[in-house]
Amino acid sequence: MKTYVICVLLVLLAGCKGTPTQGEKEARRQVQAVAGSYRPEGRKPELPVLTSQSSLSNFLSYALLNQPQVEAAYFDWLASVEGITVARSLPDPQLTFQMDIQQVVTSIMPGLMMSFPGLGKLRAAGAVATAESQAKYYAFQTASLQSAYAVERAYYQLYFLEEEVRVNRETLTLLTDLAKLARAQNEVGKVTLQDVLRAQIEQDRVETDIADLEDSRAALLAQFKAALGLRADEPAPPTPQHFESTPLDLTADEAFEAALAHNTRLKGMEAEVGAADAAIAQAYKARMPDASLGLMADVKMNPTLYRPWGTVSIPLWRDKLAAEIAQAQANKRAGEARLSAEQIALAVTVAEKAFLYREATRNLALLQNQLLPKQRQSLEVARSGYLAGQIDFFNLTDAEQTLLRFGLDEVEARAQRELSLAELLLIVQGMPSGGAEMGTTAAEGMALSRGGMGASGAGMLPSGSAAPRKTKGGM
Q1: How many domains, the chain?
Q2: Which residue has the higher pLDDT, 78 or 14?
Q3: What is the average pLDDT score of the chain?
Q4: Which of 331, 352, 402, 406 has a CA between 20 and 30 Å from the CA of residue 23?
């Protein structure tokens, strides 16, 4: 009968649940909100169908849902949330058993023992686990943003590669016309064969440049494929046919303020400082003794003999306790120093990227509005002068080469501008496009900056509000 009672107690204890902390409840709500769109029912949702006509936001959604690095960060975060429950829970009860034997068994004493950590220790451990879980959440956000940036970078590089090929092909067509012009001038004796050969040399050089550019396409496609989280044995993704660009109208100071408020790397480091602060409180709790209580019953005795017993730990080693506290305090100071260093580095990086963006914007305006139109006029003047015998073929080809250089410079300025903007948005992390509601998340902000997340990617990462973003002008 007594053994039956003990078994019943064990069954009841096995069905017990602890009391979740407030931080644990919030973390689980956060997981539920993210999992609903990122991994509903623990499985990867249906990915967007990609075509050459897909918008950049579709490619971003695909990458966020499919990129293994993002998925690894997501499950690291989930594991850390479960760790909160483990940290704040009581130790498992233990079944004890004792027998006295004097030629025959004189007593059989099954029992149950339960350990109770010192007052506040479990709460402190749960606080540490909660802060560490928040740091993992921001690591997941950062991985999402880095994945989005990798897609954007490959997207821009592919597009501007095609633009470089286009400029070179237009130049090759122009050189073909100049070669015909030189040949015609040579046939009537106005110029020597040297002009024809010079035109052919230029044609050969540009054809080689085109071949080199087209050969580099495979490497860029491999980068684009990897950014989308596709394995080597999977089919290559379609190449986007439409380019999307959105100017940014923020000063460097405004971008820095937005980065301080929303940068997920800073948020993660702040969470690490919070975890170190919670670890200090946990270290102080080490002074509290732990207790164990148990009850045994001798089922051989009649009447039954009950033997309650208990133990209490003695936190005797004061140097050990002091070292634990000092270690936790040193970890907090180190975390604060790293956070301060990151804030300083962030200011420098924002200033550099903002300058590159403004510089590229100015250079682009100069090339598109002044240099390229004027150089096209200069080439026409040189062509007319060559036909009239007023300039030689060297000056004509020099005008052609200058036009080619300006054309490639214009493509490079556009590429630098878009990549600088993408890098700046990665730093700010959480800036939605104009018209987006406040509260847009970091990863969504990257996608919305190019036209909005698709249905499968929307609402993926809930977090704080984001700074408004305009759609016209330059930094």
Answers
A1: 1
A2: 78
A3: 81
A4: 331
